[in-house]
Amino acid sequence: MEGGNQVELNMIVNGKKHNIDINPSDRLLDVLRDQLGLTSVKEGCGEGECGACTVIMNGDAVNSCTVLAIQARNKEIITTEGLEKNGELDELQKSFIRNGAIQCGFCTPGMLMSCKALLMKNPYPKEEEIRRAIEGNLCRCTGYTNIVKAVKDVVIR
Amino acid sequence: MQMMKIETPNNLDELINCLKNADSSSCLLGGGTDLIININNKKLYPNTIIDLSGVNELKEIKKNGSSISIGAGVTLTEVCENSFVKEKFPALAQATSQVGSTQIRNRATIAGNIGNSSPCADTVVPLMALNAKLKMLNGNGEYYHIPVDKAIKGSGKKNLKPNEAIIEIVIPYLKDTCSSAFYKIGSRKAVTISKLNGAVVVDINLNNTIVNAKVFLGSLGPKAFRSIMAEKVLMNKKPNKELLSEFQNILMKQVDEAIPGRGSQLYKRHAIKGMCEELFIRLFGESCIRGEI
Ligand SMILES: Cc1cc2nc3c(=O)[nH]c(=O)nc-3n(C[C@H](O)[C@H](O)[C@H](O)COP(=O)(O)OP(=O)(O)OC[C@H]3O[C@@H](n4cnc5c(N)ncnc54)[C@H](O)[C@@H]3O)c2cc1C
């Protein structure tokens, strides 16, 4: 979105402080993708339905398409780019690969962030809790079974 | 492209200042789960956005002497996971836990649900049944209370002035003999907009007789409303299979009166029977309608 007069935004993204100028009408999604180049954050429906743009904000999974960027001021954001540490994938990412939880891949970053947010709060989720955590993430390939399996697999290990 | 201005008050005093200058082209921003989508889809072009997310006073759930108050900035996740809300106001806990998805509930607020004024808004139905009031604040720095119903015009229009904001949702405690329940029916199990939603509050005496009842229905007209005819049916009766069937019949009649000739009338007059049964189970337990009690 365009919007005229720029405003200043301070936030921490994947552990790094950012101080950037944004358009007042920018969504968090726009800033993460277009200004910070974090293209794991996908725009699917743009209406909060599909979950492809899910990121973690101060520990909570949120749709970055429904958050106005300025609302992320002084907040800590994690995107899929932030899961990898020192060149090594996060256990959750490894488990997604191991369990065939990825097919076309478009929903995967959002799905990972919803599952990661769940595991950060609840390291031993039950199946129903896993399913509830990904209610807001649409996947048209996997049928969700392998995604749930991948999360359970992380829990077991 | 117009210049959109964003105001980010950090406390109630700063909010009052923002409200002082608010006009019809200003918009309050709660969680943004309705508003940001509408702005992005170019259905709305506000000149000024007043973001409430930085106002710390609005982020609390407080227990007062005779009521609980939920700040306008409290998310639906915080409401539905609050143990006091779960224990004392199950209808509200059930409604908030069934709005949208985890991501939506992590941002959405009750104040925004009321402000959006959708006919099928899920939190509005239990709030009305629970006789909730809204604590308001305006640009003159005045605080006052209004009933939930007064804040909503209906069909997606709120009945609030640009210079006033909901700051708390205040719900009076119920007697210990009361219980409440909410149920919604949508086109799928999760992340679904209600096709029907309803909330019931009942007071049951020691003889297992209903001595007071409140029944509110949503998604059957411009805004949620009270069904006095359904309340009459429940009064002074014991909850059992027979009463369920009377309750179902009267609510079918209520659907016929609310949306005569509407395409969805036939579906909703049948679907509401299932909703009645689920509400009975949540209020009185399975055994009251299945077998002998
Ligand atoms: C995918 C998806 C699923 C959804 N599912 C449901 C559902 O199942 N049930 C349901 O009821 N809704 C649902 N919604 C709608 C929405 O999430 C709710 O209405 C939510 O409660 C809005 O709250 P918010 O804080 O995000 O509001 P916002 O978008 O911030 O604001 C909505 C309106 O309220 C006004 N407002 C906000 N705060 C205040 C205040 N303090 N005082 C006065 N006015 C105010 C705003 O100006 C605006 O007009 C869904 C939305 C999406 C995108």
Automatic annotation (TrEMBL), chain A:
Q: Which UniProt keywords apply?
A: 2Fe-2S, Iron, Iron-sulfur, Metal-binding, Oxidoreductase
Q: What pathway or pathways are given for this protein in its record?
A: Alkaloid degradation; nicotine degradation
Location of the 2Fe-2S ferredoxin-type domain? 7-83
**InterPro entries membership:** 2Fe-2S-bd, 2Fe-2S-bd_dom_sf, 2Fe-2S_ferredoxin-like_sf, 2Fe-2S_ferredoxin-type, 2Fe2S_fd_BS, Beta-grasp_dom_sf, Diverse_Oxidoreductases
Which CDD domains does this entry report, sorted A to Z? fer2
Q: Which GO terms describe its molecular function?
A: 2 iron, 2 sulfur cluster binding; metal ion binding; xanthine dehydrogenase activity
Is Metal-binding one of the keywords UniProt gives this record?
A: yes
* Keyword Iron-sulfur applies: yes
Instruction: Cite the EC number.
Output: 1.17.1.4
Q: What is this protein called?
A: Xanthine dehydrogenase, iron-sulfur subunit
The organism named in the record is [Clostridium] ultunense Esp
Q: List the top taxonomic levels of the source.
A: Bacteria, Bacillati, Bacillota, Tissierellia, Tissierellales
UniProtKB/TrEMBL annotation, chain B:
Pfam families linked to this entry: CO_deh_flav_C, FAD_binding_5
Domain FAD-binding PCMH-type, first and last residues per copy = 1-176
Gene3D superfamilies per the record?
3.30.465.10, CO dehydrogenase flavoprotein, C-terminal domain (3.30.390.50), Uridine Diphospho-n-acetylenolpyruvylglucosamine Reductase, domain 2 (3.30.43.10)
Q: Which domain of life is it from?
A: Bacteria
Q: Which InterPro entries match?
A: CO_DH_flav_C, CO_DH_flav_C_dom_sf, Diverse_Substr_Oxidored, FAD-bd_PCMH, FAD-bd_PCMH-like_sf, FAD-bd_PCMH_sub1, FAD-bd_PCMH_sub2, Mopterin_DH_FAD-bd
Q: From the Swiss-Prot or TrEMBL record, what is one GO molecular function term?
A: FAD binding
Q: What are the UniProt keywords, alphabetically?
A: FAD, Flavoprotein, Oxidoreductase
Q: What is this protein called?
A: FAD-binding PCMH-type domain-containing protein
UniProt source species = [Clostridium] ultunense Esp
